[in-house]
User: What shape does this take?
Amino acid sequence: MEKVTPFLMFQGGKAEEAMNYYTSLIEDSAIKSIVRYGPGENGEEGTVMQALFSLKGQEFMCIDSAPVHNFTFTPSFSIFITCDSEDELTYLYENLLADGEALMPLDNYGFSKKFGWVNDKFGVSWQINLPND
Assistant: This one.
């Protein structure tokens, strides 16, 4: 086995928008490669057939699903971020919450100084944590 990589499947041509959004919010992040559907292929021309991006060194794969599915993302799988400062935590929480949904508002829940859990505008779930010292 070479490695294990989280894989995100978007619908409606949202993969590239999501990658651009995530890499703009998190430092040391980048889109590494994008392969697009071409004319006559199984997906909408120009959408993401397969892409690779990284957030702080963690690689993710993603696609724009050509078929429409009766399922999407669920909070039972989330991306967990450990922040270095309250400012960083607040910035990420507020931006990821924009047009999304708060599952746990920013607060001290006892297991960290401050914690929040959101589903972003793409439906991806994020836990954002500022650990106790």
The beta strands are 7-10, 29-36, 48-55, 58-64, 78-82, 101-107, 114-119, 125-130. The longest strand covers residues 29-36. The mean pLDDT is 96.
